[in-house]
Amino acid sequence: MEAGAILNTLLSQAAPVVALLGYVDKDHQQQVRIYPVVAPQKTPRPYCTYQLVSLVPEAGSSAVCRLGDVGRVQLSLYADAYDTLAALTTAVRGALDYAEPEPGVFLEPDNQQDHHDKDAVCLFRSLDYLVELP
């Protein structure tokens, strides 16, 4: 499974995350506001996007001994208020930190950072995860 899709699945199934993000209608179906790479224009906040930053062979892998891959996935959280951003971060980290969603797949938090842009109309925080894949 693709590293970003693993995070999307875990977040979409986590009740605290879903309670904060809510749903939007997409093709007459309810979809949690989690999007690959970029959210549609005019998506109500809060919402989350994710993107694959890198995918590299695990250290020590070779043609003779393949150990798997390590993906770095960045989540971007957007909200109008800092307390909403903080609550969403807590919910996301509760769902993802050190999760083992299936055999051979392991998630590890790597970085968390607030971002500032004087022209931004909302608050933005990034969370990076390392995803070990078989």
Write the layout of secondary structure elements.
Layout: H1 3-12, H2 15-21, E1 23-26, E2 29-32, E3 34-36, E4 47-57, E5 69-79, H3 82-96, E6 106-115, E7 123-133
Parallel strand pairs: 3-4
Antiparallel strand pairs: 1-2, 4-5, 5-7, 6-7
Helix pairs in contact: 2-3
What does this molecule look like?
- The protein is 24% helix and 40% strand.
- With 134 residues, it is an alpha+beta fold.
- β6 (106-115) and β7 (123-133) form a beta hairpin.
- The protein is globular, with a radius of gyration of 16 Å.
Short description:
With 134 residues, this protein is of the alpha+beta class. It contains three helices and seven strands, in the order ααβββββαββ. α2 runs antiparallel to α3 (82-96).
Q: Could you state the order of secondary-structure elements as H and E?
A: HHEEEEEHEE
Overall spatial form? globular
Based on secondary structure, the structural category is: alpha+beta
The pLDDT mean sits at 89
Contiguous runs where pLDDT drops below 50 for at least 5 residues = none
The profile of the biggest β sheet is: 5 strands, mixed
> How large a portion of the residues is in β-strands, by DSSP E?
35-45%
Q: End-to-end distance, in Å? A: 10 Å
Number of helices: 3
Radius of gyration: 16 Å
Q: Provide the spatial order of strands within the biggest beta sheet.
A: 3-4-5-7-6
- In total, how many beta strands? 7
DSSP helix fraction: 10-25%
